[in-house]
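thought: fold this chain, then report.
action: predict
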Amino acid sequence: MSDFSSEHYVINIGRQYGSGGREIAFKLGERLGIKAYDTEIITETAKRSGFSPEIFKKSDEKVKKFSLFSAFSHGIQYESTNFMDGNELFLIQSETIRSIARSESAIFVGRCADYILRDHPRIANVFISAPDEERVARVMKRRNISEAEAKSRIEQTDKKRAEYYNYYTFGEWGVAHTYHLCIDSSVLGIDGTVDFILDFIDKKISIRQ
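observation:
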């Protein structure tokens, strides 16, 4: 039986790099008056677990192994032969996500939150995409980098996100049947996409009562 409060709801945002998914998630949070978590999950997980935030940053949406030599933030030393498997880091972060979902309505960006919270009674899983040219232009402007650098960053980031999601969920990152709603942010723009998602999740999980 689920221990999630029926009063709380969760919105999970998967996103292609450069699609505006993070911006959309935080604007949704502002409109709904609930907190959006992206890299904030790293800080919160580190605080709750006692590990340094750096170990979670290095594993963020990647499949890796890390030495425990500098894992703890309190200066505790470990033999260099000790390793923390990526699976263990995933489990620690997963419990943070579940804990937040138990205590409040929230929006989670990436990090397999849709899979982790699959038993939540009030949930909407959304994937944000955009055409390559739109994503390249956004990344060039945001990062102040060349077109070639933007294309490379998009390709590498999307590949890492797909590998991470597919490995831990046995699902398919970015494939329509994995989500409740897939939307191209270039069609309506960022604010229009926010409006559309709000209408969708209101119908799905009755967020406005």
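thought: worth noting. The chain is about 50% helix and 15% strand.
final: tokens above.
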